[in-house]
């Protein structure tokens, strides 16, 4: 992959260049306190873009899979209907997206564009989207208490699936790496300078160091994937996990890899309805309830079981060739019952280790 | 880029031709696509597949396909249970609604050539099985014995009356009916569906047999137990599962059980597979 250097003062000029090329640029900003969010860059807020900040809880997933998205507009006239699909094809850049979220979008690509059926709405948003990835290098600002991307092998620096990757060398310079033709084309701009072997070595050293600056959250997937795939998890363990779930759906809404949605028709005018899809969450009681009231997943632990089974079962990892957990730590941060992914992995490992305990060898 | 016409979520307009009462709260809706090409394409469905039906404004929901592809007309048979089905029941002949599909795997009827077919249905469980029965009758010489065991709560709730009368008369098929509670006019057997297996003169073939089971969860459990006890292996018992579905194409996530998406990997599963999915029927 092609790499170039640029001055820290020039980083936001990438945003200007992209905006000049007609892209809507989405970048991270700071609200009050811990609050951070992605928003559209305008002339007014351009200087307030944050390069180092805690990753926003509301994931950038919404630019490929909006929280609420209109699929169809249906107009009624003369006893019949005119059905018109409403595609959104804005050319957009996600600037400053973290490596975990890059992996999340890759996972969504695999899910929505892979296999037999391709999602045309997702496809159009995605085809018009560039990802400018920011490597997490600041242990205080970038790496949160709950971050565990090294366990999910998605960060702190994404290895692929971005268009351009930026990394702060913490000496007034940034290194830019192109991950696609679109990214390489950007590197031709005069703000970029060639890199030396010493710069590449510096990048490597920073990455090696930052991997040791992660906080206390860990999530050792491998054994858990095996336990889940082999059906070794006791009902008791799922129940314990379920008992701590408050059924708020928060984990799903902040997850960069969750894909479920529901579809609803709503009145948009006197003779017009629109069909929208809305993020849905398997934690919610009505998720599997059928007309007539029969619900095959009645107990809360059945539903919790579902979320983690879907993310950890080997079958699905093979199916998407991607684990549906990016290690972003958002679920751990928002869960009121402390049953985010790291805790669940921990609970499963502990319970299974207990049942599989080998009797101590006599002296 | 996928062309806009290949939009997996785009329903095609259908016209309601006529409505026929089946049993209380259940009606059959005969319809056709406005576009004859779409109608021809759709008519290649397999027994056991399903369609996503839109009543605009009320929403979209999955419905199984009771007609056999060997029949001329396309129709749905629907019980009024919720918002969508109530809106469908309110439609009048000539009204437009949306259909997309067919979806799902369907029953592999070709794999069953040369085998005996045993159909066990309870209540509106006959809807998806009707397709297979009519299909098998249309290709009668390709199958061994064909038996139907069908039960409903009471006589007035036995559906597809005309078909039942024809099957009962036919020498090609053994048709056994039962009701849970007999009305004064009922001359037939009284009891749950599984009790038909013990009737004098009834002999369910076990070797080289496929059993199709569809009905309410409680009936399903008892019938499965009886069939297994008779010696029918789990992989020779097939059923079609019902789940809340929003897309029909493996994206919305609602129908995913165990490692299977009911919409794309199912809705037809063998009992062997159902057991492994690990969720209620």
Largest sheet of chain A: 7 strands, mixed
Named CATH architecture of the largest domain in chain B: 3-Layer(aba) Sandwich
- Class from secondary-structure proportions of chain B: alpha/beta
Strands of the biggest beta sheet of chain A: in what spatial order? 1-9-8-7-6-2-3
- The end-to-end distance of chain B, rounded to whole angstroms, is 39 Å
End-to-end CA span of chain A: 58 Å
Most extensive interface, chain pair and sizes: A-B, 53 and 48 residues
Residue share in helices of chain B? 10-25%
Instruction: State the oligomer.
Output: heterodimer
Order of helices and strands of chain B: EEHEEEHEEHEHEEEHEEEEH
What string gives the helices and strands of chain A in order?
Answer: EHEEEEEHHEHEEHHHHHEEHHHH
**In terms of structural class, how would the helical and strand content of chain A be classed?**
alpha/beta
CATH topology of the largest domain in chain B: Rossmann fold
Low-confidence stretches of chain B: none
What's the topology here?
The complex is a heterodimer of chains A (363) and B (281).
Chain A: E1 3-7, H1 11-20, E2 24-30, E3 36-40, E4 68-77, E5 80-85, E6 92-98, H2 99-113, H3 120-127, E7 129-134, H4 149-152, E8 164-168, E9 173-178, H5 181-187, H6 197-210, H7 221-229, H8 235-243, H9 250-254, E10 261-269, E11 272-279, H10 300-312, H11 314-320, H12 330-334, H13 341-355
Parallel strand pairs in A: 2-6, 6-7, 7-8
Antiparallel strand pairs in A: 1-9, 2-3, 4-5, 4-11, 8-9, 10-11
Helix pairs in contact in A: 7-13, 8-10
Chain B: E1 12-23, E2 26-33, H1 36-42, E3 50-55, E4 59-64, E5 74-79, H2 83-89, E6 96-103, E7 116-122, H3 126-138, E8 146-152, H4 161-169, E9 174-179, E10 189-190, E11 209-214, H5 217-230, E12 237-240, E13 256-257, E14 260-261, E15 268-270, H6 271-277
Parallel strand pairs in B: 7-8, 7-11, 8-9, 9-10, 11-12
Antiparallel strand pairs in B: 1-2, 1-6, 2-5, 3-4, 3-6, 12-15, 13-14
């Amino acid at each position: 992959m092609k790499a170039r250097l640029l001055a820290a003062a020039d980083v936001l000029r990438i945003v200007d260049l992209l905006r000049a090329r007609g892209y809507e640029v989405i970048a991270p900003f700071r609200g009050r306190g811990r609050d951070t969010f992605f928003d559209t860059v305008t002339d007014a807020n351009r200087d307030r873009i944050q390069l180092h900040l805690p990753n926003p809880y509301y994931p950038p997933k919404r630019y490929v899979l909006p929280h609420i998205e209109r699929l169809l507009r249906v107009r009624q006239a003369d006893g019949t209907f005119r059905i018109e699909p409403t595609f959104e094809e804005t050319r957009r850049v996600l600037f400053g997206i973290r490596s975990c979220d890059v992996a999340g979008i890759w996972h969504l690509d695999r899910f929505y564009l892979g296999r037999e059926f391709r999602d045309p709405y997702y496809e159009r948003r995605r085809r018009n989207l560039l990802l400018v990835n920011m490597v997490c290098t600041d242990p205080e600002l970038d790496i949160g208490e709950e971050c565990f991307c090294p366990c999910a092998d998605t960060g702190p620096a994404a290895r692929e699936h971005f268009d351009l990757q930026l990394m702060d060398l913490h000496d007034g310079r940034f290194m830019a790496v192109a991950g696609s033709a679109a990214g390489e084309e950007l590197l031709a701009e005069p703000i970029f300078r060639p890199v030396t072997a010493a710069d590449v070595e510096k990048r490597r050293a920073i990455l090696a160091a930052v991997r040791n600056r992660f906080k206390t959250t860990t999530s050792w997937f491998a054994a858990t994937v095996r336990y889940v795939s082999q059906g070794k998890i006791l009902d008791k363990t799922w129940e314990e996990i379920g008992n701590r779930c408050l059924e708020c759906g928060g984990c799903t809404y902040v997850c960069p890899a969750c894909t479920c949605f529901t579809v609803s028709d709503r009145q948009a005018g006197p003779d017009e309805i629109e069909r929208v899809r809305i993020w849905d969450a398997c934690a919610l009681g009505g998720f599997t309830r059928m007309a007539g009231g029969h619900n095959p997943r009645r107990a809360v632990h059945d539903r919790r079981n579902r979320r983690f089974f879907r993310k950890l079962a080997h079958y699905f990892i093979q199916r998407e060739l991607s684990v549906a957990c990016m290690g972003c730590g958002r679920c751990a941060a928002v869960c009121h019952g402390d049953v985010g992914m790291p805790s669940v992995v921990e609970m499963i490992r502990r319970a299974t280790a207990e049942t599989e305990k080998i009797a101590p060898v006599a002296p | 880029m996928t062309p806009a016409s290949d939009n997996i979520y785009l329903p095609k307009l259908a016209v309601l031709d006529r409505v026929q009462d089946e049993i209380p709260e259940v009606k059959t809706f005969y319809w056709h696509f406005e576009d004859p090409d779409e109608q021809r394409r759709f008519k290649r469905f397999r027994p056991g597949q399903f369609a996503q039906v839109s009543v605009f404004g009320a929403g979209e929901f999955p419905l199984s396909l009771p007609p056999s592809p060997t029949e001329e007309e396309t129709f749905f048979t629907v019980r009024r249970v919720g918002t969508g089905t109530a809106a469908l029941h309110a439609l009048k002949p000539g009204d437009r609604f949306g259909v997309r599909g067919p979806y799902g795997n369907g029953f592999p009827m070709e794999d069953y050539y040369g085998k005996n077919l045993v159909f066990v249905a309870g209540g509106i469980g006959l809807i998806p099985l009707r397709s297979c029965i009519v299909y098998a009758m249309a290709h009668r010489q390709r199958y061994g014995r064909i038996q139907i065991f069908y039960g409903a709560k009471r006589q007035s709730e036995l559906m597809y009356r005309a078909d039942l009368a024809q099957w009962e008369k036919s020498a090609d098929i053994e048709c056994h009916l039962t009701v849970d509670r007999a009305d004064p006019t009922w001359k037939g057997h009284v009891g749950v569906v599984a009790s038909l297996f013990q009737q004098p003169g009834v002999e369910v073939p076990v070797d080289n047999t496929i059993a199709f089971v569809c009905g309410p969860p409680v009936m399903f459990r008892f019938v499965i137990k009886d069939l297994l006890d008779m010696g029918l292996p789990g992989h020779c018992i097939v059923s079609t599962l019902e789940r809340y579905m929003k897309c029909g194409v493996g994206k919305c996530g609602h129908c995913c059980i165990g490692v299977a998406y009911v919409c794309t990997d199912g809705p037809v599963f063998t009992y062997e597979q159902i057991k492994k999915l690990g969720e209620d029927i």
